[in-house]
Design a protein that fits this description.
alpha+beta, globular, 3-stranded antiparallel sheet, about 475 residues, binds iron/sulfur cluster
Length: about 475
């Protein structure tokens, strides 16, 4: 870059200030999200395409009383140029990386009200044990009504004169949303989460004042093309392992969930779903999911039952992609350390770091090693988690239900490695959250796994993305 005249910042980038003094920068054309130090933007606002670093330094001193030497200004310009944030011919020609594009989800959200009561996965129990896991890191979007029912005056002790909402980018293709503020320095805990793991809104204003997403969690409802809607649970909850035997039966939550769905969104399953590259009626996909689910409920999740399911339902895809899965995820985790982290989605590393030795299972799989036999308790706990996933929506956020099923079984095998012979359901719960995150929560992380299972399919998918978006 020619530093004799520093190019201006691109006009189309969007900037949101965060309470921690950093800024989220969204590039709506290249679908990039960056978190930068606010001082970078303070400096870059004085780039006008004509001034050099000396003139920018003088403008900063005159207009804002800020001192910044020309070398520092050149470094900021260099870094922003590398991120294509300056108005240059190179940034104008840059094309988005397909990995940055919005998730290729098969399920849509719908706000259709429930006409009939949903059916629930059998034997599903859950009670909140105040672990607070859902109150960390997940962006809680607020509608105007949800924002209005929280009385900010009651929380002076925690708000410190600031608002409880901030604007944040959730989806690179959408404008910023209003979300609950998080304490970045405290593992992104919600501003209303007390040190004792209690929700202060619940405590001070009652459960109905909480945002709908908090009231409904971990329950979710899917509308199927035919038949009754289904209610299931999101499995990324630390309390799941503690309450899976003696928690409240999920069906007791139906009336409340139904009430919340008057305003909150449910998911809608399409009539036809690709399965191993072929379009199948949803009923067919559901039959396969039900058989896999029943197989694990009868046998638990063990190395043998995984092998049997692989031969019966996946034609050996699990065995074939095991080594590549380990290798591909290990290198993705390394790459991720160098890259900018998506602002609200979180990095895959953050999920994996919840485990004591997060890379060990991947290293074992890379060598083609089979997992050890888990305790019966763990084998059945994992079967139940699998049932919840397959009952509700399956791995339908992945572009192909068959590939999603393969990813689910690979994740289960990684869980068995992570838990070992003596590990408890608590460890299995965390491992399940981490290894299923790419297929259930953060689809942008699914690419390396899809690549490991079927590189040709994945290449085709990337090409269709590029075609669809006109790049
Ligand atoms: S409002 Fe309450 S339930 Fe919702 S995220 Fe914050 S602390 Fe958790």
């Amino acid at each position: 870059m020619n530093v004799a005249s520093i190019p201006a910042l691109r006009e189309d980038i969007e900037v949101n200030h965060r309470p921690d003094g950093q800024v989220d920068v969204r590039d709506p054309r290249l679908f990039n999200l960056y978190t930068l130090d606010a001082s970078y933007l303070d400096i870059a606002r004085h780039f006008d395409g004509e001034r050099d670093s000396q003139a920018v330094s003088e403008a900063l001193a005159d207009e804002e009383g800020l001192s910044s030497d020309p070398a520092e200004i050149e470094q900021v310009a260099q870094e922003l140029d590398t991120l294509y944030l300056l108005d240059t011919a190179t940034s104008a020609e840059a094309e988005p990386s397909v990995d940055n594009m919005a998730p290729y989800a098969l399920v849509e959200a719908t706000s259709r009200k429930l006409r009939v009561l949903p059916e629930v996965a059998t034997q599903a129990n859950w009670s909140c044990r105040m672990c607070g896991s859902c109150c960390h890191g997940l962006a809680v979007e607020l509608s105007e009504a949800e924002e209005a029912r929280i009385d900010g005056d009651l929380y002076d002790d925690v708000l410190d004169g600031e608002e409880f909402v901030v604007d944040a980018i959730i989806d690179p293709e959408q404008p910023a949303k209003r979300i609950l503020r998080q304490r970045v320095e405290n593992n992104r805990a919600c501003i209303f989460l007390s040190g004792e793991g209690q929700c202060l809104v619940h405590e001070r204003q009652g459960s109905q004042a909480k945002p709908d997403a908090c009231q409904i969690f971990p329950y979710m409802v899917v509308h199927l093309p035919k038949g009754k809607p289904r209610m299931t649970m999101r499995t990324n909850c630390y309390s799941m392992h503690e309450s899976w035997e003696d928690g409240e039966p999920a069906e007791e939550a139906i009336p409340e969930v139904r009430r919340l769905l008057e305003t909150h969104e449910a998911l809608k399953v399409p009539k036809v779903v690709p399965m191993f590259g072929r379009d199948k009626e949803w009923e067919h996909v559901q039959k396969v999911f039900d058989r896999v689910s029943n197989h694990f409920m009868a046998n638990g999740v063990t190395p043998e039952s995984l092998d049997e399911a692989d031969r019966k339902y996946l034609r050996g895809r699990l065995a074939k992609s095991r080594e590549k899965f380990g290798k591909s995820l290990l290198s993705y985790l390394e790459e991720e350390k160098k890259a900018a982290i998506p602002v609200e989605e979180g990095s895959l590393r953050e999920y994996f770091d919840l485990l004591p030795r997060p890379k060990t299972p991947l290293e074992a799989m890379k060598k083609g090693e089979l997992p050890p036999e888990p305790s019966q308790e763990v084998a059945h706990f994992l079967a139940r988690q699998t049932q919840l996933v397959l009952h509700g929506f399956g791995p339908l956020n992945v572009p192909d239900a068959g590939m999603g099923l393969t990813m689910l079984l690979l994740a289960l095998e990684a869980c068995l490695h992570a838990v070992g012979r003596r590990g408890k359901p608590q460890r299995a719960n965390i491992a399940f959250m981490a290894y299923t995150a790419p297929l259930l929560e953060v689809q942008t992380h699914a690419w390396p796994i899809l690549e490991a299972i079927d590189p040709r399919f994945t290449r085709g998918l990337r090409e269709s993305y590029i075609e669809e978006l006109g790049y």
